[in-house]
Amino acid sequence: MVHLIRPMEKGDLGQVNVIDREAFPSQWPPPSYRQELQNRLAHYLVAIDDSRTIAPTAEKPAQKRSGLKARIMYWLKRGQSHDEPKSTEPKQYIAGFAGIWLMVDEAHITNIAVAQECRRKGIGELLLIATVDMARDLKANMMTLEVRASNIPAQNLYSKYGFEKMGTRRGYYLDNREDAIIMSAEDINSAAFRERVEKLREALIQKLA
Ligand SMILES: CC(C)(COP(=O)(O)OP(=O)(O)OC[C@H]1O[C@@H](n2cnc3c(N)ncnc32)[C@H](O)[C@@H]1OP(=O)(O)O)[C@@H](O)C(=O)NCCC(=O)NCCS
Which residues are CB-contacts of 16 (< 8 A; sequence separation ≥ 6)? Predict the structure, then answer.
């Protein structure tokens, strides 16, 4: 499998929304990646599995909601322009995505998510490395994020790359009042952080080859 990273585009939103719902089912309301693409603070990337494509008709619709949630979604989406005309061309297969918000010299990781069927193959790492590269290109010095206290896979991923636990936000997640762990890489331009990422990048290149 060949993986490519590129900026997220409007035509990716169908697949991105499906991955988001699968990865963060309890987040309500779901984020609007359509709005994020217009947010000048936000920068999003997608990981493409270049060994496969997806037929436009095979794109899974985001989970259907009924009742009150469906009415709220309808109301929230009123007035939004809808997707560009549907193409019949096969589309690139999106295996995952990640994004940051850049505030002065701080890059806040908003999300990293990998499609369930593509997990544990190094794509989360690929996205994290690309996000660090992008943050450096945007002149950030520090990276930070919040992660659920119970989300051990994500905490392990960030710890592997030198992110440290800096504190806790009590009851941060509204669905179950779970705590958020704040994790940060204080200086992504330091020699020590660069060396760590470069070693891991090399190891990942071997793994994905
Ligand atoms: C967290 C997530 C992005 C990891 O993506 P992935 O492609 O499966 O991860 P990778 O294969 O690149 O693994 C990289 C590292 O993450 C950690 N990790 C990933 N999955 C793990 C698991 N199930 N259990 C423990 N550690 C795990 C490990 O440290 C791993 O390194 P290793 O292979 O040397 O053990 C993915 O599980 C996901 O999309 N989860 C749902 C969304 C989410 O929680 N995002 C984070 C929000 S802050």
Answer: 8, 33, 46, 94, 97
Reported as a single tens digit per residue, the pLDDT across 17-70 is: 999 999 999 998 899 999 999 999 999 999 999 999 998 866 654 444 455 555
Pocket test for ligand 1, best of 157, 183, 207 (most atoms within 8 A of CB): 157
Measure 112 CA to ligand 1 centroid, in angstroms.
9
* CB 26, CB 63: distance < 8 Å: no
How many whole angstroms separate alpha carbon 14 and alpha carbon 114? 15
- 106, 143 Cβ separation under 8 angstroms: yes
Which atom number of ligand 1 is nearest to the Cα of residue 126? 12
pLDDT in tens, 112-150: 999 999 999 999 999 999 999 999 999 999 999 999 999
On whether the CB atoms of residues 172 and 132 are closer than 8 A, the answer is no
pTM of the model: 0.89
Q: How far apart are CA 136 and CA 31, in angstroms?
A: 25
**C-alpha 43 – ligand 1 centre gap (Å):** 21
Q: What is the rounded CA–CA span in Å between residue 118 and residue 207? A: 14
- Whole-angstrom distance, CA of residue 114 vs CA of residue 95: 6
Phi, psi (degrees; rounded to nearest 5) at 119 = -75, 160
How far apart are the C-alpha atoms of 163 and 83, rounded to whole Å? 37
